[in-house]
Amino acid sequence: MSMKFRTLLSFGVVLCAMWLSSCGHYVCHTTLGSSTCTPSGGGLSSGGGGNAAASAYAFAVNDNGTIDGYTLSASASTFVATPNYTAATTTANAGGVGMVVAQGKYLYTVYADLHEIYGWTIDSAGGLTPLSGFPMPVSLTIPTLLAFNQYAVITNPAGTLLFVSDAGINQIIVYQISASGGLTQAPGSPFSAGTIEPQNMGMDGLGKYLYVSSEGSSLNHAGTVVGAFSVSSTGVLQQIAGSPFNYPIWQMQGDPSGNYLIGISGKTAYWYGSDDDSLYVFNINQSTGAISPVTGSPFTTTYAPFNMAVRPSSTGGEFVYTFSINDSGTAYNPIEGYQISTTTGGLTALSLSSSTPTAWGQFDPAGSYLFSYSNSGSAISLAALTVGSTGGLTATGSPVTLATGGYWAASDVP
How far, in Å, CA of 173 to CA of 192, rounded? Predict the structure, then answer.
């Protein structure tokens, strides 16, 4: 088992590893921002069995032992703590290793330090109800780090499969998600990743192939190769011919068409020693899942991407956004945006009026809103941005203050 001890950015996406002598594993959690801040609230009314003003919801792990909820209202231009929300309870934890929304109505959080997966149903008012049979046990050797790996827990586009990477013993755990939200391990799960030490994961837009980054021994937030697996309808993984592919990609996501895979190397001066100001775009062979660079790739960015997010919906255009930190590791850079050509995979830079600085963002499942996570050291916050038809970003409401650092996810209104 490879042991990981990583310290991250001192200005906010900072984590440390805590040695647990009883089991010999590293458990990593946020160290800055474990404040006693109270999430901002007020501003929306809830009634009639739902929140009529709500446009989307966000949920965040509070490592004191709850899941906190927030409501975005585009019509009212507010983003606040969900009214009349009763916090879902967990056990005090180290911030989780991933949180995802499936089928538009189920929320799952994976905790390596607790060796458990929690699951809830999301109601129309943004409340959470525990799913039957949860929490359920999961065996993970090494948890991933907040803002180091954002995608160690993902679902397929249909929300019928849940994937969890375990870099400690080079394996990927796959669960089938039932129509009622239950989890059942896929036949043959967990699957060996071979020589790949699985970190961030991404899928093509059609859910046929799973791509996995692998990190070398230097532990420097930089990928070495990309592993690729075909995914059956029942969640069985089979490594495809040519995998792993010799592309140093750290994080990747497919575009909605299923034709392209967009990735970043993750190399930044503060963490790696030099910047890679690039976005990489690959053609996906629809028959085999093999990837190859599109013409013009890699595409030049202004800043070296630390993280990225691809809009999951093609409505109004296919867009990708990147998030980064400055070379001294003291601040975030502005968000960058690019439009993806659906015929060539080429990227065209967007003119963004929003200069919101952040190092981590992700979309609601419908792709209407981009949520961003920031940590100034004394305050950890989530902000919401409305995505325009041409890819422009507009701040919607004020950022909400999170009680602690931890994983988070956005949901559309069920």
Answer: 9
Average pLDDT, integer, range 255-260: 96
Joined together, the tokens standing for residue 100 give 């995802």
Please write the tens of the pLDDT for every residue from 332-346: 999 999 999 999 999
In the structure encoding, which two tokens stand for residue 207, read together?
């859910």
**Cα gap 76→60, rounded to integer Å:** 22
Query: Is the model's pLDDT at 23 over the cut of 90?
Result: no
Task: Measure the CA–CA gap between 149 and 250, rounded to whole angstroms.
Answer: 9
Mean pLDDT over 115-142 rounds to 94
Residues ≥6 apart with Cβ < 8 Å to 247? 223, 225, 226, 263, 280, 282, 291, 293
Q: Is the peptide bond before 135 cis (omega within 30 degrees of 0)?
A: yes
> Do 338 and 348 contact (CB within 8 A), yes or no?
yes
Cis peptide before 244 (omega within 30 of 0): yes
Paired with 93 in beta bridges are none
Q: Which of the residue ranges 184-193, 329-338, 372-381 would you say has the lowest mean pLDDT?
A: 372-381
Please state, in angstroms and rounded to a whole number, the distance separating the CA atoms of residues 158 and 169. Answer: 28
The torsion angles phi and psi of 349, rounded to 5 degrees, stand at -65, 140
Structure tokens at 327: 């070379």
| Average pLDDT for the chain | 86
**Which tokens is 203 given?**
């899928």
Cα gap 93→286, rounded to integer Å: 41
Length of the chain: 414
Cα separation, 336 vs 14, whole angstroms: 22
Sheet holding 223-231, edge to edge: 198-203, 209-215, 223-231, 237-239
pLDDT above 70: percentage of residues in the chain: 84
What are 372's strand-pairing partners?
A: 361, 383
**What global pTM score does this model have?**
0.89
- Angle among Cα 181, 182, 185 to the nearest 5 degrees reads 130
Contacts 24+ apart (CB under 8 A), 348-355: 350/319, 350/390, 350/391, 350/392, 351/392, 352/391, 352/392, 352/393, 353/392, 353/393, 353/394, 354/385, 354/392, 354/393, 354/394, 354/395
